[in-house]
Structure prediction request, 492 residues.
Amino acid sequence: MIFNDHILKPFINQIHKDLNAFCINEKYYSYAKFSQRIATIAKYLEESDELRIGLITNDHLDTYASILAIWIIGKTYVPINPDAPPARNQNIIDQVGIKTILDSKKTIKLNSVDFETSIKVLKQYSLESNYSDQLAYILFTSGSTGNPKGVKISFKNLASFIEAFLKTGFVLDHTDKCLQCFDLTFDVSIQSFLVPLIHGACVYTVPSDQIKYSYVFGLLDDHKLTFGIFAPSMIHFLKPYFDEIYLPQLRYCILTAEASPIDLVKEWAKCIPNAKISNFYGPTEATIYCTYFHVNLRKKLKGANGVLAIGQPFKGISIVILDENLRPVEKGQKGEMFVSGNQVTEGYWDNLELNKEVFVVFDYKGSPQRFYKTGDLCMEDEDGDILYYGRRDNQVKINGYRIELGEIEFHARASIDGKNAIAFIYQGQTGRNEIALCLETKNFNKNAILKTLQATLPSYMRPTKIFNLEKFPLNKSDKVDKNAIIKRFNFI
Prediction:
């Protein structure tokens, strides 16, 4: 009953028909309207025997209502981005065997039940819910074989996340106004709307047809939002306007989805003087987040290679850092991070080979325990905080030397006033691996940058080619799209 106790009951119990649940494209929708749409769609879906429901991720009230409707009847939703290549979406549909697909353009035609009936329906469903081991959603991420891989997240995984997240120090109520700016195919979006909804707060979304970053700032400023979750790359886009941005009403700011540069965090903090800033980390396989670090601006910010620490594990999460032979490393030594606990997925959809590769069982505190191999290089410091060093596959060999591309990026950022930098490997004319560096800046002084890197990096870590882009491309998860940058320079 963990899903019922931590998600369904809190949501149903706080429903107040006169409060706003969503603001979508500058139009408000009350909790009464939202609950009516949930009950209506749930009753419609009840007639289907399908367990896995495709969901077109339009920015529409019925899209969010469909997620809750699917959950309260114990089924699984699979988000499908209408802007993704048709072949990719068809691959997902075929992999999961989806036969029923919900689209707000069609569900909007369903006649709503009245408010009183909707509450009765929701309460009845919550009494009948007992499906913690069933799947809440399947999210597809990029796969190394070219086929997207489906991460299976159960109701137990999701409820365990909500329970743990609410113990990390966030207190929300019906007066809060919360930003939801992530695509619904990315798991951070779930926290962005679900946590506000179980507290009676209002969720403000970003329409897909708007310029995201200017629209986000408009929402934050015009509507005086109090809770925001951001990828650091989004804040990078706002950086040219930091002198004009002042958001004293923002109470909470979560940074997530990618490494958070310390210099950027310090500058952004001036724009949000009253906000509690936190850095959250987590792979999709561990249900949204599994570690957190609260920023104390009165102290020197802790991190590695200019990147903010990812902090402590959630309650119920076990983390170990191991060497290449799966042996624990000492504090102060780097290794790969492995994660275990109730938030960790049971595995990928129909992918036994990959499951065997990334989920391992070994002895932990005297008993066998199953861990997920994250592929992230980390180190635990003397305070028990975890420092993040980047992806393990971001560690490469050049002329026999093992180097971390993140260290090159750190020194490159310092030479261009903290702007973004991406280092990657390409094959030179001699066939040997060489380092390329791309800078997110309109103009740069190549000689000045080389001089800085010569003073801070050994010769084998210095780039042989340096390029610039005025703005880095981002993917659907608002992370810097490194592959797109590499393709742009024809290095793959």
